[in-house]
Amino acid sequence: MNPPRAPLAEAGFSLVELIVALAIAALAATAVVLALPGRAATPAQEAQRLAARLAAARDLAVIGGHPVAVTIDPSGYAFAVRRDGQWTVPADPRLHRRVWPVGLAVTGAATARRAVFDAMGLPNAPFAVRLRADGATVQVLVAGDGAVTLGGAAPP
């Protein structure tokens, strides 16, 4: 006689378990990328660093369930988390204030702006940040759906 089999519903992982595992893996990968030591910054490298940190801030807003703001100005950028009615500096030191390297300039409409990712990971408005140095310009785009990309046209 054959032993009883477990129902098919008990085999494998649920979709929620897979999504949680992927989110944890993405956060771990982001932490590794942000922890890499820097060299002389080029606009492309700084744009990649900014894009990774913007994506990490968006993910922090979704996973933590609290809005996360980024303030970008000509001297650098900083993040803040909204908890208990107050904006505070994130616990992760990689999301603390970063000063642009010498010779790098922020151009365009984002020379002084504040954007907020809500708990769904959506920004309050799409925006672009252009970084320029040594004749090279690179653009970081944040779309209305929260997607962070490098280069291309400005978001609508």
TrEMBL record:
Which family is this protein grouped under? Belongs to the GSP H family.
* Compartment list: Cell inner membrane
Which InterPro entries does the entry link to?
A: N_methyl_site, Pilin-like, T2SS_GspH, T2SS_protein-GspH
For membrane topology, the record states: Single-pass membrane protein
Q: What is the lineage of its organism?
A: Bacteria, Pseudomonadati, Pseudomonadota, Alphaproteobacteria, Sphingomonadales
Q: Which UniProt keywords apply?
A: Cell inner membrane, Cell membrane, Membrane, Methylation, Transmembrane, Transmembrane helix
- Span of domain General secretion pathway GspH: 46-146
Q: What protein name applies here?
A: Type II secretion system protein H
Task: Supply the NCBIfam families for this chain.
Answer: IV_pilin_GFxxxE (TIGR02532)
| Pfam families in the cross-refs | GspH, N_methyl
